[in-house]
Specification:
Elements (H helix, E strand, L loop, with lengths): L1 E4 L4 E12 L5 E7 L5 E5 L3 H4 L1
Antiparallel strand pairs: 1-2, 2-3, 3-4
């Protein structure tokens, strides 16, 4: 699963992705960048939706 890393400035593979919810109940996938360990987020999706 890939997400945009703001520190690396390109799409990177996400390490240890997990499903969570925002305070207002929207789904979010949280993980870390495989290269620099910066936090990555994909808002509005779940791991099951990403395939």
């Amino acid at each position: 699963m890939q997400a945009y890393c703001v520190k690396c400035r390109e799409k990177r593979d996400m390490s240890s992705p997990r499903d969570e919810q925002t305070k207002n109940g929207k789904p979010i996938i949280k993980g870390t960048c495989g290269v620099c360990n910066t936090g990555l987020n994909i808002i509005g999706k779940t791991i099951a939706q990403m395939g």
